[in-house]
């Protein structure tokens, strides 16, 4: 009777594996490890215990992966790290639930840092992350071109938020007097350098799908913003963004127009200014160290 009435499938995966499946799927596709390398670099100054550093890495890693799962749904992405996006495998509802689950898994790690301030820092930077994402989505869906400053604030919130979270938690856990200057000042500069590096790198291979995705997703990237604002009377790029086109000829036309407005050159010049600021800050904090060298090389900031 038990065999006849049983509702369990022949092979039943445990509940935790089911809930985590979209999360674990993306975690197995390793990224560049920028955040872990950044934390290793800063720990050469902050010297927090290894077990607390590992907790912070887990927190940031879970939040980052959860945000990617949600991003891919909101952007209707097809690929992430060279594999099909999680929601194309597990469905949208299950992927959203898994991402939300990861946020609380990260929060569950905070008591291991043994400092009540961790919850305040965690909440502040998650709010910043969602503020940045909210503005990015609003500009895309309402077809509103932000100013350069508005864009950089958004990037600082959306991308810089997890960098700030990591450093603030590390500062909290450290007994060192190093890095006691306002972290908002430092990360306002450094995260802009890092994220603008990524944007400008995309412009260096504009025919590759990385840049094409911005046009298909209707996103206002740094060079697109500069190009639109350099000639507001020309509405061609805005109309291309509105269409969310996948047409390669239309994308090539858009890229040629953006090139004609000097927007790629402007991005490279802006990047040079921002990386110079980052260099000065890193040098002022004590010069080169092993992990810092690796981080700087990865971000394209040669000291």
UniProtKB/TrEMBL annotation:
<dbReference type="InterPro" id="IPR008949">
    <property type="entry name" value="Isoprenoid_synthase_dom_sf"/>
</dbReference>
<keyword id="KW-0479">Metal-binding</keyword>
<dbReference type="InterPro" id="IPR000092">
    <property type="entry name" value="Polyprenyl_synt"/>
</dbReference>
<comment type="similarity">
    <text>Belongs to the FPP/GGPP synthase family.</text>
</comment>
<dbReference type="InterPro" id="IPR033749">
    <property type="entry name" value="Polyprenyl_synt_CS"/>
</dbReference>
<keyword id="KW-0808">Transferase</keyword>
<dbReference type="Pfam" id="PF00348">
    <property type="entry name" value="polyprenyl_synt"/>
</dbReference>
<dbReference type="GO" id="GO:0004337">
    <property type="term" value="F:(2E,6E)-farnesyl diphosphate synthase activity"/>
</dbReference>
<dbReference type="GO" id="GO:0043386">
    <property type="term" value="P:mycotoxin biosynthetic process"/>
</dbReference>
<protein>
    <recommendedName>
        <fullName>(2E,6E)-farnesyl diphosphate synthase</fullName>
        <ecNumber>2.5.1.1</ecNumber>
        <ecNumber>2.5.1.10</ecNumber>
        <ecNumber>2.5.1.29</ecNumber>
    </recommendedName>
</protein>
<dbReference type="GO" id="GO:0004311">
    <property type="term" value="F:geranylgeranyl diphosphate synthase activity"/>
</dbReference>
<dbReference type="GO" id="GO:0004161">
    <property type="term" value="F:dimethylallyltranstransferase activity"/>
</dbReference>
<dbReference type="GO" id="GO:0046165">
    <property type="term" value="P:alcohol biosynthetic process"/>
</dbReference>
<keyword id="KW-0460">Magnesium</keyword>
<dbReference type="GO" id="GO:0046872">
    <property type="term" value="F:metal ion binding"/>
</dbReference>
<dbReference type="GO" id="GO:0008299">
    <property type="term" value="P:isoprenoid biosynthetic process"/>
</dbReference>
């Amino acid at each position: 009777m038990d065999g006849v009435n049983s509702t369990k499938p022949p092979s039943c995966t445990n509940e935790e594996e089911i809930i985590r499946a979209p999360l674990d799927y993306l975690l197995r596709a390793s990224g560049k490890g920028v955040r872990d390398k950044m934390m290793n670099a800063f720990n050469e100054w902050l010297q927090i215990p290894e077990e607390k550093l590992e907790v912070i890495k887990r927190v940031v890693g879970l939040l980052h992966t959860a945000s990617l799962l949600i991003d891919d749904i909101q952007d209707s992405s097809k690929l992430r790290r060279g594999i099909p996006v999680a929601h194309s495998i597990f469905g949208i509802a299950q992927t959203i639930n898994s991402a939300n689950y990861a946020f609380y898994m990260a929060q569950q790690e905070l008591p291991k840092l043994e400092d009540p301030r961790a919850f305040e820092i965690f909440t502040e930077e998650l709010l910043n992350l969602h503020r940045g994402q909210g503005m990015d989505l609003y500009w895309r869906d309402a077809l509103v071109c932000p100013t350069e400053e508005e864009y950089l604030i958004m990037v600082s919130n959306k991308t810089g938020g997890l960098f700030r979270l990591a450093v603030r938690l590390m500062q909290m856990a450290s007994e060192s007097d190093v890095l006691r200057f306002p972290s908002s000042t430092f990360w306002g500069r450094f995260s802009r350098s890092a994220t603008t590096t990524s944007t400008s790198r995309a412009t260096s291979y504009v025919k590759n799908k990385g840049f094409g995705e911005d046009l298909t997703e209707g996103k206002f990237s740094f060079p697109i913003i500069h190009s639109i604002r350099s000639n507001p009377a020309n509405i061609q790029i805005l109309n291309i963004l509105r269409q969310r086109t996948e047409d390669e000829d239309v994308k090539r036309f858009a890229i040629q127009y953006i090139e004609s407005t000097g927007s790629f050159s402007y991005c490279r010049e802006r990047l040079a200014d921002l990386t110079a600021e980052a260099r000065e800050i890193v040098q002022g904090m004590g010069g080169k160290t092993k992990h810092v060298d690796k981080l700087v090389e990865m971000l394209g900031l040669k000291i």
